Amino acid sequence: MQEIFRIRDKISLRPGFTISRKAGPWKGTSVTWFSLGQDTDISQESYDQPRLLLGEWGKGAVILGKEKREENLCQGRLLLIPGEMLCGLKTESGLIYTEIVLTEKENIMNNFIKAGEAVELKELLPYEEGSIVNLDIVRNKSLKYVLMAFDEGTGLDPHRAPGEALLTALEGEALVDYEGEAVHIRAGESIRFAKNGLHSVKAISRFKMSLLLVLE
Predict the structure, then answer these.
(1) Is the pTM of this model over 0.90?
(2) Where among 57, 86, 121 does a domain terminate?
(3) Domain C-terminal end among 60, 87, 121
(4) In b/e form, how buried is each residue of 132-159, taking b as 16+ CB within 10 angstroms?
(5) Rounded-to-integer distance, Cα 164 and Cα 77, Å
(6) What is the pLDDT of residue 2?
(7) Each residue of 90-116: pLDDT tens digit?
């Protein structure tokens, strides 16, 4: 049976420790889960490539620039860190987040996402009666990160994706069928699809999700 999981169950959270774990063996795309235990921090560093930070559990602060401006990071929040910007993190209670490094030179970023400003993912797109709403956050040759909002009873017919995918429920509930096996997914849970895996989505209630598609 296809596994439904929470990212916070995939990586240890230990007081005083910072732990990182690769989310998948994806060529050309860096997706990493990080955990910061109680009262830990990561010193400010800068990278050439822009990065997306996705809050998965807990609460912490992202420390930006020479002025050390702080942005809160928690479950369901997204933050775009431009290349060459100083960035650190700290938490008092514990934090788990996903880091996606945008390794391609050409990234098409949605104008809703402002560099260095955290946003609530599920607040970026509305529901439409009897409809499915899509919103691309970023895409390049190696990946696509998209949000979707389903009105109750709507869904996606069985289809196959051209790369590995990670679906995360942001709000509501849905029934996901993967290769003939149906699983129930709720806010805060994720499911992974293999490349060309046959899958469909049916919203039980109004339902919002993110989808990270990694292309080879």
Answers:
(1) yes
(2) 121
(3) 121
(4) beeeebbbbebbbbbbbbbbbebbbeee
(5) 23
(6) 66
(7) 999 999 999 999 988 888 999 989 999
